[in-house]
Write a structure and sequence with these properties.
Elements (H helix, E strand, L loop, with lengths): L1 H16 L29 H16 L1
Length: 63
Amino acid sequence: MKKIALAAVFAGAASTAFAGGMDEPVMEMEPVVVVEETTGGSSSNLIIPIILIALIAAAASSN
């Protein structure tokens, strides 16, 4: 197993050593502004945690 890990390390080191020259930098696009739309009230964000707490409490009380 140690030989396989050592071979993987050497293979990784060898592949980066022969990676080649540097390319010219690529111009990236300007960032796009993202507009988040507001959804319903904050109570809609509490439904899943309340259900999870109820399921955990039900499982704990059944034991």
